[in-house]
């Protein structure tokens, strides 16, 4: 599991920014501690020479390799990717996140180096 940092934002956004340092194949279970709406995710895969897949599950927990992700974002080797969701994507159960070297459900291998993830959630 990565290291989580949470920063509250002032109105009018009324959002929180969550930074997960070193996301890996250990699920960050319900890292927000509540439900909410995802508006942006930024993924830094610059430390890896292979693609990484960040997976989000609308649940309070997940089993890597078994639980089907609701969102999978592929970030090519040595790159960063930001994805905006202008209308937001609601997570009604909770936010669980993990990162592997394969897409889909079955991948269970951690990236070889740090993958850092920032989420903007309301």
How is this structure best described in words?
The protein has 122 residues and is an all-beta fold. It is built from no helices and eight strands. Strand 1 and strand 2 (16-21) form a beta hairpin. The radius of gyration is 13 Å and the shape is globular.
State the oligomer. Answer: single chain
- Largest sheet strand order: 1-2-8-3-6
End-to-end gap: 23 Å
Principal-axis shape equals globular
Task: Please estimate the helix content.
Answer: under 10%
> What integer value in Å does the Rg equal?
13 Å
> What is the number of helical segments per DSSP (H or I, 4+ residues)?
0
Q: Could you spell the SSE succession in H and E letters? A: EEEEEEEE
The main sheet comes to:
5 strands, antiparallel
Percent of sequence in beta strands: over 45%
Q: Look at the structure and give the mean pLDDT.
A: 91
Write the layout of secondary structure elements.
Blueprint: E1 3-8, E2 16-21, E3 36-44, E4 52-58, E5 71-75, E6 80-91, E7 95-100, E8 116-121
Antiparallel strand pairs: 1-2, 2-8, 3-6, 3-8, 4-5, 4-7
Features:
0% helix; 8 strands; mainly beta; five-stranded antiparallel sheet; 122 residues
Question: Brief overview, please?
Answer:
The chain is built from no helices and eight strands. With 122 residues, it is an all-beta fold.
């Amino acid at each position: 599991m990565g290291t989580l940092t949470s920063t509250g934002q002032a109105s009018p956004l009324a959002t929180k920014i969550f930074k997960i340092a070193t996301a890996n194949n250990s699920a960050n279970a319900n890292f927000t501690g509540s439900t909410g709406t995802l508006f942006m995710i930024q993924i830094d895969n610059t430390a890896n020479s292979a693609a990484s897949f960040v997976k989000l599950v609308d649940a309070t927990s997940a089993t890597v390799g078994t639980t089907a992700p609701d969102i999978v974002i592929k970030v090519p080797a040595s790159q960063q990717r930001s994805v905006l969701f202008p209308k937001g994507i609601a997570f009604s159960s909770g936010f669980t996140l993990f990162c592997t070297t394969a897409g889909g459900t079955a991948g269970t291998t951690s990236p070889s180096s740090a993958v850092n993830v920032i989420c903007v959630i309301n």
